[in-house]
Amino acid sequence: MPIWRLAAALAALAAYALLCHGLMAHAPGHPLTVVALFAPLLGMLALAGLQAGRHLLLLAAVLLAGLLAALTLAGRSGDMNRLYVLQHAGMHAALAWLFGNTLREGQTPLITALAQRIHREFTPAMRAYTRRLTALWAAYFVAMILLSLALYVLAPWPWWSLFGNLLTPLAAGSFFVGEHLLRRWRHPEFERASLVQAVRAYRELGATRAPGGR
Question: Which of 67, 126, 156, 178 is most buried, judging by how many CB atoms fall within 10 Å of its CB?
Answer without folding.
Answer: 126
